[in-house]
Specification:
SMAD_FHA_dom_sf; FHA domain-containing protein; 2 helices; Cell_Proc_Reg/RNA_Proc
């Protein structure tokens, strides 16, 4: 079907409002190329030299910030983020490969990690970390090997670990205020 409603045989399809049946009827007119090339013959600026004004800039999530001092944090133990610690206080950290939605970002080639794998946040009043799997293909696991059920929130305390897609990407949550001396 062409933009003018013609099929490749030169017939047009129309619908009657009464019975909603399709009726095909032959069309005798020919395609007019003059309509399509109106800008080519005008004295206006060519399309290639025209700049489209930006009216909306896509907002990407803030990338995870390095943790400072003893604030609640997420630390990478193994995998892509090993050796890095990130702030968790007053924010939600989403893990995955989608740069438009994830703060803890994995490379596109890391196929074992879903585009939006899981989410971690910190509840300051209770001093708890909340971990939720977002329906990832290869799962999010607690340190005891239990696979998180998608959409269910799991509580983690300081020092507890979890991993993405088995044990390839391992993390630990820390809140040194809970440390017993």
């Amino acid at each position: 079907m062409t933009a003018k409603g013609k099929d490749h045989n030169g017939t047009a399809s129309s619908v009657t409002e009464d019975d909603q049946e399709y009726i095909e009827e032959p069309i005798d007119e020919e395609w007019n190329d003059e309509e399509a090339s109106a800008l080519e013959t005008s004295d206006e600026v060519p399309i290639a030299d025209y700049t489209i004004p930006v009216t909306q800039i896509l907002k990407f999530p803030d990338q995870a910030e390095p943790a400072e001092g003893y604030e609640p944090r997420l630390c990478g133990l193994e995998g892509e983020h090993a050796g890095n610690c990130y702030r968790v206080l007053n924010r939600r950290l989403t893990f995955g490969r989608d740069p438009s939605r994830c703060a803890i970002l994995f490379p596109y080639e890391a196929g074992e990690i879903s585009r939006i794998h899981c989410t971690l946040r910190y509840i300051e009043e209770n001093r708890l970390f909340i971990l939720e799997d977002n329906g990832s293909s290869n799962g999010t696991f607690l340190s005891n090997g239990e696979r998180l059920k998608p959409g269910v929130r799991y509580e983690l305390r300081s020092g507890e670990r979890f991993s993405l897609s088995g044990r390839q990407q391992c993390f630990e949550v820390k809140d040194d205020e809970q440390r017993v001396v």
